[in-house]
Specification:
two-stranded antiparallel ribbon, 5-stranded parallel sheet, Rossmann fold, globular, alpha/beta
Length: about 180
C-alpha cells in the first residue's frame, strides 16, 4: 500500500458532514442508539452518506427520495422519526406537519431564496421551515449557522488527522507524501 493511500481515503472526504450531524446529536444529549432516523434526500454528497452513517450508529435508517411524487412517503416516514435529517435541496420543504413532536431535526440544506427586504436581495434558508417546526421539535439546527460551522470544524479535525498520519508515516521512514504526488 502506498503512503498516499494510507494517508486519507475517499471515504474520509464524506465524513465531515456525517460527523458534524453526529456531534450535534451528541452535544444536545440525544440518545441515538435505537432511535428511528429518516434521511430526506439521497444525494451522493449528503443524503446517501448520512443514511449509511445512521445505520452504522445502530439507528434505524430510512433513505428517502427527492422526487415530489414520493412526497407522501416522506411525510409518513418523517413524522414517525426520532431524528430527521433534511438534505433534499428544496427551501422549506419540510414543515410542522412533517415532523413529529420532540424529534431532533438536523437541517443540512442550504438554499438561496429571493428576499426584497434583504440588502442582498436574497436570504439563505434550509430545507426545513425553521419557524414552523421549532416549537414542536426537541431540537433543530438553524440555517445558516447550524451544520455549516460544524462541518468546517470537522474538516479541520480531518486535516489534523491527515497531518498526524503523514507525520507518523514520515517517522516510520516511509517516503514523504509530497514526493509521491
Amino acid at each position: 500500500m502506498s503512503p498516499s493511500s494510507q494517508w486519507m481515503t475517499p471515504r474520509d472526504s464524506f465524513r465531515a458532514r456525517r460527523w458534524a450531524a453526529s456531534v450535534l446529536s451528541e452535544e444536545i444529549g440525544f440518545e441515538t442508539s435505537g432511535a428511528k432516523a429518516v434521511v430526506v434526500g439521497r444525494s451522493m454528497l449528503v443524503g446517501k452518506p448520512m443514511a449509511s452513517c445512521s445505520c452504522g450508529a445502530g439507528r434505524l435508517e430510512t433513505p428517502r427520495s427527492q422526487s415530489p411524487i414520493r412526497a407522501p412517503v416522506i411525510l409518513r416516514g418523517s413524522r414517525a422519526a426520532d431524528i430527521v435529517i433534511a438534505a433534499i435541496g428544496r427551501p422549506h420543504f419540510l414543515g410542522a406537519n412533517h415532523i413529529g413532536n420532540d424529534a431532533v431535526v438536523i437541517d443540512v440544506g442550504i438554499n438561496r431564496i429571493e428576499d426584497p427586504h434583504s440588502a442582498k436581495g436574497y436570504r439563505i434558508v434550509g430545507d426545513v421551515d425553521f419557524e414552523a417546526v421549532a416549537e414542536r421539535c426537541a431540537a433543530i439546527t438553524p440555517v445558516p449557522g447550524g451544520v455549516g460551522p460544524m462541518t468546517i470544524a470537522m474538516l479541520m479535525a480531518n486535516t489534523v488527522t491527515a497531518c498526524e498520519r503523514l507525520a507518523s508515516l514520515n517517522r516510520a521512514g516511509e517516503s514523504n507524501l509530497a514526493r509521491s504526488i
